[in-house]
Amino acid sequence: MKRHFIRLACISLGSCVLATAAFAQTPVSPPGSWPYLITTPGSYRLTANMLAPAPSSAIVIGASNVTLDLNGFTVAQSGLVPPCSPDITTGYGSTCSAVAGNALISATGRNITIKNGTVSNGSSAGIVLNPISPGAAMGARFEDLNVTGNRGDGISATGEGNRYLRVNALYNSGIGIEAGTYAQLEDVSANWNDGNGVLAGSFGMSSRVITRANGATGFFGAGVLDHLLTSANNSSGLIFNGVVRNAASQSNGISDAVTGVLLDSNFYTGTVSVTGCYAQTAAGAFLGTGVPMTSNTCP
Prior knowledge:
two-stranded parallel ribbon, 1 helix, mainly beta, 25 strands
């Protein structure tokens, strides 16, 4: 019995060793010359802030199946002053202007995860995922990120099937989040960006999104949207084609335009142009060909 127990323990220990090896992370520290290049699949973890000289990228990912854990650190460019901030003079957008240049984190490939840190003060976009060929730049995952004060888009990822979990895109000089098609957004905020707060492609699913004081539309997209707060955007709060539930849209510069189906009783806005059917409990004038409803079924 004792011999049998030792054999089982060895098997268990061997499994643990293999599991540890499988999840080993490559440490990432500031390189001697910029940018830091990732060219092989694997898991990478920052050990310090990555402050690249402008206008160089800080990190360039040139492989698929890469996880980049920022580990609570900041990826930024040094020497850019003053930093971008909310433009309280106009009441929307940022105090910086968009410029052409290199993204702080640039990536190509499939199944790329970037998480757990801050991407800020770039001379151009914060994060760009480039679809350089058909089928590339799919299945990206962005988690627990603050993408702030970049002189371009906060995150631009135009491929398919990307996920955005607990992402804040604030006072960037372009679009806050360009999400791509078939995207999923959960617990996302996009405020004080110069372009749209969120630009989501077709057939996406979004839940618990806040967009405020952006220079264009708060949320522009299609698919299914549940629990949206959008206000004080310079253009429309919401332009959407699909199903909207539990949306509050107030004090935006242009009337909200919605096509498709609105299927809940908590849609609140000022003036809405609609086609399809919609529901409302407290709202202003409704325009278009929609059918007013008070229940959750379409006639």
